[in-house]
Design goal:
Strand order of the largest sheet: 2-1-5-4-3
Order of helices and strands: HHHHHHHEEHHHHHHEEEH
Structural class: alpha+beta
Number of helices: 14
Helix content: 40-55%
Largest sheet: 5 strands, antiparallel
Radius of gyration: 22 Å
Number of strands: 5
Distance between the termini: 38 Å
Length: about 300
Protein backbone atom coordinates (compact mmCIF):
# COMPACT_ATOMS: atom_id res chain seq x y z
CA UNK A 1 0.00 0.00 0.00
CA UNK A 2 1.34 3.47 -0.86
CA UNK A 3 2.36 5.57 2.14
CA UNK A 4 0.00 8.38 1.14
CA UNK A 5 -2.98 6.03 0.99
CA UNK A 6 -5.00 6.12 4.25
CA UNK A 7 -5.54 3.03 6.33
CA UNK A 8 -8.73 1.13 5.66
CA UNK A 9 -11.38 2.24 8.14
CA UNK A 10 -11.77 0.09 11.22
CA UNK A 11 -15.25 -1.50 11.01
CA UNK A 12 -17.40 -0.22 13.87
CA UNK A 13 -14.25 0.93 15.61
CA UNK A 14 -11.99 3.95 15.94
CA UNK A 15 -10.38 5.61 12.92
CA UNK A 16 -6.71 4.62 13.09
CA UNK A 17 -5.64 7.45 10.80
CA UNK A 18 -7.36 10.06 12.96
CA UNK A 19 -5.97 8.51 16.14
CA UNK A 20 -2.40 8.67 14.83
CA UNK A 21 -2.85 12.23 13.55
CA UNK A 22 -4.32 13.60 16.76
CA UNK A 23 -1.84 11.79 18.98
CA UNK A 24 1.15 13.30 17.15
CA UNK A 25 -0.45 16.73 17.00
CA UNK A 26 -1.20 16.83 20.73
CA UNK A 27 2.29 15.55 21.64
CA UNK A 28 3.87 18.26 19.47
CA UNK A 29 1.63 20.96 20.93
CA UNK A 30 2.74 20.27 24.50
CA UNK A 31 6.43 21.00 23.74
CA UNK A 32 7.81 24.52 23.67
CA UNK A 33 10.92 25.42 21.61
CA UNK A 34 12.98 25.97 24.75
CA UNK A 35 12.07 22.46 25.92
CA UNK A 36 14.12 21.00 23.07
CA UNK A 37 17.00 23.47 23.00
CA UNK A 38 15.58 25.92 20.45
CA UNK A 39 15.20 29.66 20.86
CA UNK A 40 12.17 30.61 22.97
CA UNK A 41 8.98 31.41 21.07
CA UNK A 42 8.35 35.05 20.25
CA UNK A 43 5.24 37.03 21.05
CA UNK A 44 3.81 36.62 17.55
CA UNK A 45 4.13 32.84 17.36
CA UNK A 46 0.73 31.43 16.40
CA UNK A 47 1.43 27.71 16.76
CA UNK A 48 0.96 26.17 20.21
CA UNK A 49 4.07 24.14 20.89
CA UNK A 50 6.57 23.11 18.22
CA UNK A 51 6.06 23.74 14.54
CA UNK A 52 6.08 20.74 12.22
CA UNK A 53 9.31 21.87 10.60
CA UNK A 54 10.97 22.14 14.03
CA UNK A 55 9.89 18.67 14.99
CA UNK A 56 10.99 17.26 11.63
CA UNK A 57 14.42 18.88 12.07
CA UNK A 58 14.79 17.38 15.53
CA UNK A 59 13.79 13.93 14.27
CA UNK A 60 16.03 14.12 11.19
CA UNK A 61 13.25 13.69 8.61
CA UNK A 62 11.88 15.94 5.91
CA UNK A 63 9.00 18.27 6.71
CA UNK A 64 6.91 16.66 3.95
CA UNK A 65 7.54 13.19 5.39
CA UNK A 66 6.57 14.22 8.92
CA UNK A 67 3.53 16.12 7.65
CA UNK A 68 2.25 13.00 5.89
CA UNK A 69 2.78 11.01 9.07
CA UNK A 70 0.92 13.56 11.20
CA UNK A 71 -1.91 13.41 8.69
CA UNK A 72 -2.18 9.71 9.45
CA UNK A 73 -0.48 8.49 6.28
CA UNK A 74 2.34 6.55 7.86
CA UNK A 75 1.75 2.95 6.88
CA UNK A 76 5.32 2.35 5.69
CA UNK A 77 7.16 4.40 8.28
CA UNK A 78 10.17 2.56 9.64
CA UNK A 79 10.79 1.66 13.26
CA UNK A 80 13.93 3.84 13.18
CA UNK A 81 11.93 6.89 12.13
CA UNK A 82 9.31 6.24 14.78
CA UNK A 83 12.07 5.98 17.37
CA UNK A 84 13.54 9.30 16.21
CA UNK A 85 10.15 11.01 16.35
CA UNK A 86 9.47 9.54 19.79
CA UNK A 87 12.79 10.96 21.04
CA UNK A 88 12.08 14.36 19.49
CA UNK A 89 8.64 14.43 21.12
CA UNK A 90 10.11 13.24 24.44
CA UNK A 91 7.59 10.41 24.63
CA UNK A 92 7.44 8.10 27.61
CA UNK A 93 7.92 4.38 27.04
CA UNK A 94 4.13 3.91 27.17
CA UNK A 95 3.57 6.72 24.67
CA UNK A 96 6.27 5.33 22.40
CA UNK A 97 4.60 1.92 22.38
CA UNK A 98 1.24 3.58 21.70
CA UNK A 99 2.72 5.42 18.71
CA UNK A 100 4.00 2.15 17.29
CA UNK A 101 0.58 0.53 17.70
CA UNK A 102 -1.07 3.42 15.88
CA UNK A 103 1.48 3.69 13.08
CA UNK A 104 1.96 -0.05 12.51
CA UNK A 105 -1.40 -1.83 12.47
CA UNK A 106 0.28 -4.94 11.11
CA UNK A 107 -1.79 -7.74 9.54
CA UNK A 108 -1.45 -9.67 12.79
CA UNK A 109 -2.89 -6.78 14.79
CA UNK A 110 -5.61 -6.05 12.24
CA UNK A 111 -6.79 -9.65 12.36
CA UNK A 112 -6.59 -9.82 16.13
CA UNK A 113 -10.06 -9.98 17.57
CA UNK A 114 -11.18 -7.73 20.39
CA UNK A 115 -11.62 -9.48 23.73
CA UNK A 116 -14.70 -11.65 23.79
CA UNK A 117 -17.97 -10.04 24.80
CA UNK A 118 -18.30 -12.46 27.72
CA UNK A 119 -14.95 -12.53 29.50
CA UNK A 120 -14.58 -15.44 31.87
CA UNK A 121 -12.56 -15.47 35.08
CA UNK A 122 -10.85 -18.75 35.87
CA UNK A 123 -12.15 -20.56 38.99
CA UNK A 124 -8.68 -20.53 40.53
CA UNK A 125 -8.59 -16.74 40.28
CA UNK A 126 -11.97 -16.50 42.00
CA UNK A 127 -10.62 -18.69 44.78
CA UNK A 128 -7.59 -16.42 45.05
CA UNK A 129 -9.84 -13.38 45.44
CA UNK A 130 -11.90 -15.07 48.15
CA UNK A 131 -8.76 -16.03 50.05
CA UNK A 132 -7.50 -12.43 50.16
CA UNK A 133 -9.05 -11.41 53.46
CA UNK A 134 -8.62 -7.89 54.75
CA UNK A 135 -7.58 -6.31 51.45
CA UNK A 136 -9.88 -5.08 48.67
CA UNK A 137 -9.11 -6.87 45.40
CA UNK A 138 -10.84 -7.27 42.05
CA UNK A 139 -10.21 -8.57 38.56
CA UNK A 140 -10.71 -6.19 35.67
CA UNK A 141 -10.83 -6.83 31.95
CA UNK A 142 -11.37 -5.25 28.56
CA UNK A 143 -12.65 -1.67 28.40
CA UNK A 144 -12.21 -1.30 32.19
CA UNK A 145 -14.99 -3.80 33.00
CA UNK A 146 -15.08 -5.23 36.52
CA UNK A 147 -15.26 -9.01 36.22
CA UNK A 148 -14.95 -10.36 39.77
CA UNK A 149 -14.21 -9.03 43.25
CA UNK A 150 -13.91 -10.02 46.88
CA UNK A 151 -15.99 -8.93 49.87
CA UNK A 152 -13.58 -6.18 50.88
CA UNK A 153 -13.69 -4.63 47.41
CA UNK A 154 -17.47 -4.54 47.63
CA UNK A 155 -17.28 -2.99 51.10
CA UNK A 156 -14.83 -0.32 49.89
CA UNK A 157 -16.16 0.52 46.43
CA UNK A 158 -19.85 -0.38 46.72
CA UNK A 159 -21.93 -3.48 46.10
CA UNK A 160 -21.23 -4.14 42.44
CA UNK A 161 -23.37 -7.28 42.67
CA UNK A 162 -26.50 -5.12 42.81
CA UNK A 163 -25.59 -3.28 39.60
CA UNK A 164 -26.58 -4.39 36.10
CA UNK A 165 -23.54 -6.08 34.52
CA UNK A 166 -23.05 -3.31 31.95
CA UNK A 167 -22.65 -0.75 34.74
CA UNK A 168 -19.78 -2.67 36.34
CA UNK A 169 -17.31 -0.62 34.39
CA UNK A 170 -14.77 1.77 35.92
CA UNK A 171 -15.16 4.36 33.18
CA UNK A 172 -18.94 4.50 33.61
CA UNK A 173 -18.67 4.52 37.40
CA UNK A 174 -16.05 7.27 37.40
CA UNK A 175 -17.84 9.67 35.06
CA UNK A 176 -21.53 8.82 35.45
CA UNK A 177 -21.96 7.78 39.09
CA UNK A 178 -21.81 10.72 41.54
CA UNK A 179 -21.04 8.40 44.46
CA UNK A 180 -17.59 7.75 43.01
CA UNK A 181 -16.84 11.43 42.71
CA UNK A 182 -17.42 11.58 46.45
CA UNK A 183 -15.49 8.38 47.18
CA UNK A 184 -12.24 9.45 45.48
CA UNK A 185 -10.79 12.56 47.09
CA UNK A 186 -8.44 12.88 44.11
CA UNK A 187 -11.25 12.29 41.62
CA UNK A 188 -9.58 14.47 38.96
CA UNK A 189 -6.55 12.18 39.03
CA UNK A 190 -8.75 9.09 38.95
CA UNK A 191 -10.66 10.45 35.95
CA UNK A 192 -7.47 11.32 34.07
CA UNK A 193 -5.96 7.89 34.74
CA UNK A 194 -9.15 6.18 33.59
CA UNK A 195 -9.26 8.00 30.25
CA UNK A 196 -5.52 7.52 29.69
CA UNK A 197 -5.93 3.79 30.16
CA UNK A 198 -8.87 3.66 27.72
CA UNK A 199 -6.78 5.57 25.17
CA UNK A 200 -4.01 3.01 25.53
CA UNK A 201 -6.50 0.18 25.14
CA UNK A 202 -7.94 1.89 22.04
CA UNK A 203 -4.52 1.98 20.40
CA UNK A 204 -4.20 -1.77 20.89
CA UNK A 205 -7.81 -2.61 19.97
CA UNK A 206 -8.99 0.00 17.44
CA UNK A 207 -11.53 -2.37 15.90
CA UNK A 208 -13.43 -3.01 19.12
CA UNK A 209 -17.03 -1.84 18.51
CA UNK A 210 -17.92 -2.02 22.21
CA UNK A 211 -15.11 0.40 22.99
CA UNK A 212 -16.47 2.81 20.37
CA UNK A 213 -19.92 2.54 21.94
CA UNK A 214 -18.52 3.19 25.42
CA UNK A 215 -16.52 6.22 24.27
CA UNK A 216 -19.56 7.55 22.42
CA UNK A 217 -21.81 7.16 25.46
CA UNK A 218 -19.35 8.84 27.83
CA UNK A 219 -18.65 11.65 25.35
CA UNK A 220 -22.36 12.45 25.18
CA UNK A 221 -23.01 12.20 28.91
CA UNK A 222 -19.84 13.73 30.40
CA UNK A 223 -18.18 16.98 29.35
CA UNK A 224 -15.20 16.10 31.53
CA UNK A 225 -14.71 12.84 29.68
CA UNK A 226 -14.87 14.64 26.31
CA UNK A 227 -12.15 17.07 27.35
CA UNK A 228 -9.88 14.37 28.72
CA UNK A 229 -10.41 12.11 25.69
CA UNK A 230 -9.34 14.96 23.42
CA UNK A 231 -5.94 15.20 25.14
CA UNK A 232 -4.87 11.79 23.75
CA UNK A 233 -2.87 11.05 26.90
CA UNK A 234 -2.02 7.38 27.45
CA UNK A 235 -1.08 5.57 30.65
CA UNK A 236 -0.66 1.94 31.61
CA UNK A 237 -2.34 0.54 34.70
CA UNK A 238 0.35 0.15 37.33
CA UNK A 239 0.66 1.18 40.94
CA UNK A 240 0.11 4.25 43.05
CA UNK A 241 -1.82 5.75 45.93
CA UNK A 242 -5.49 6.68 46.17
CA UNK A 243 -7.07 8.87 48.82
CA UNK A 244 -10.68 8.04 49.62
CA UNK A 245 -13.52 9.28 51.79
CA UNK A 246 -15.67 6.28 52.75
CA UNK A 247 -19.17 6.86 54.18
CA UNK A 248 -18.61 4.28 56.97
CA UNK A 249 -14.98 4.63 58.03
CA UNK A 250 -14.00 8.07 56.74
CA UNK A 251 -10.62 8.96 55.28
CA UNK A 252 -8.32 6.30 53.82
CA UNK A 253 -5.02 6.46 52.01
CA UNK A 254 -4.44 3.19 50.18
CA UNK A 255 -1.67 1.97 47.92
CA UNK A 256 -2.66 -0.17 44.95
CA UNK A 257 -0.85 -2.63 42.73
CA UNK A 258 -2.08 -3.79 39.33
CA UNK A 259 -0.84 -7.19 38.16
CA UNK A 260 -1.49 -8.14 34.55
CA UNK A 261 -2.54 -11.75 34.08
CA UNK A 262 -0.93 -13.42 31.03
CA UNK A 263 -3.08 -15.76 28.96
CA UNK A 264 -6.29 -14.41 30.51
CA UNK A 265 -7.72 -12.26 27.71
CA UNK A 266 -6.26 -8.96 28.93
CA UNK A 267 -7.36 -9.36 32.53
CA UNK A 268 -5.60 -7.81 35.51
CA UNK A 269 -5.71 -8.10 39.28
CA UNK A 270 -5.85 -4.91 41.36
CA UNK A 271 -5.16 -5.02 45.10
CA UNK A 272 -5.45 -2.14 47.58
CA UNK A 273 -3.62 -2.10 50.90
CA UNK A 274 -2.78 0.27 53.74
CA UNK A 275 0.51 0.94 55.50
CA UNK A 276 0.72 -1.36 58.53
CA UNK A 277 -0.17 0.39 61.78
CA UNK A 278 -1.65 3.41 60.03
CA UNK A 279 -5.06 4.98 60.54
CA UNK A 280 -6.02 3.66 57.10
CA UNK A 281 -5.12 0.11 58.16
CA UNK A 282 -7.41 0.48 61.17
CA UNK A 283 -10.14 1.86 58.90
CA UNK A 284 -9.82 -1.20 56.65
CA UNK A 285 -10.03 -3.46 59.70
CA UNK A 286 -13.21 -1.70 60.84
CA UNK A 287 -14.62 -1.87 57.33
CA UNK A 288 -13.98 -5.61 57.25
CA UNK A 289 -15.84 -6.13 60.54
CA UNK A 290 -18.70 -3.70 59.86
CA UNK A 291 -19.44 -3.92 56.20
CA UNK A 292 -17.85 -6.80 54.34
CA UNK A 293 -19.87 -9.65 55.85
CA UNK A 294 -23.11 -8.13 54.62
CA UNK A 295 -21.99 -8.04 51.01
CA UNK A 296 -21.77 -11.02 48.69
CA UNK A 297 -18.67 -11.34 46.52
CA UNK A 298 -19.30 -10.83 42.82
CA UNK A 299 -19.08 -13.59 40.29
CA UNK A 300 -20.75 -12.54 37.04
CA UNK A 301 -18.93 -11.34 33.96
CA UNK A 302 -20.27 -8.14 32.36
CA UNK A 303 -22.40 -8.33 29.27
Amino acid sequence: MDEDQPYPPAPDGLDRRAELSEFLRTRRARLQPQDVGLAPAGRHRRVPGLRREELAQLAGVSVAYYTRLEQGNGRNVSAEVLDAIARALQLSDTEHAHLVHLAHPTPTRRKQRAPKRQQQVRPALRQLLESMEGVPAYIGGARSHILAWNRMAAALFGDWGKMPPAERNWARLTFLNPDYRELFRDWESKASDMVSYLRLYAGRNPEDPELSALVGELSVKSEKFRKLWATHDVKEKGHGVKRMRHPLVGELTLSYETLHLPDDDGQFLSVYHAEPGSASAEALRLLASWGADAIQAGSEAPR
